[in-house]
User: Fold this.
Amino acid sequence: MTDKDFEKIEKRIIEIINIDKPKTVQIIVDILKTEYNIDQDILIEYVYELSEKGIITLKTENKITPVNFIQYLKSINSSWYWIIVLFTIATNIIVYIIPSTSQLIFIRYIFSFIYLFYLPGYAITKILYPKNNVSNTLRVIISLALSIGIIYLISLLLNVTFFGLNLFPIASSLLLFILTSSTIGLYIEYQSSMHDK
Assistant:
């Protein structure tokens, strides 16, 4: 490869960075591979040479990888888990605090709808698909379908026990189910992230 070719690729790399603003070097290399018939390793070397010359600046992300499950619980990766925990607790508080004759009953309905028809299925999808390899739309659809089935099974089980189908047993069973399955889903997600390293 001649110096002229290198200058041409160098100008194109700078153009890609200024126009497309790629987040990773791999994106730059993928664009260049479609335009030039050059090996990926050589293109990566070109990008790093430009960085060493000071022509471009590469930023490195300081990602702290959790070593154990407790650190994973505190990391940004578990934010979905904490949202579910807080929403579940908030819904249970709202259901017991807002009476059915209050003008704020619509808040209770909104929270209860999500609590009944989304969260149980979402917790199960986190167990079934821990690596986020499912689109968000598909995850919502699966969550709705699974939630209906889970509500049906919990209601069936409660109906044959001495608890019956009252507000407290249903809310408590769902609370227990959602928190348990979310915790299991988080642990499986943690295990799969450790396995990928």
About this structure: Residues 69-196 form one domain.
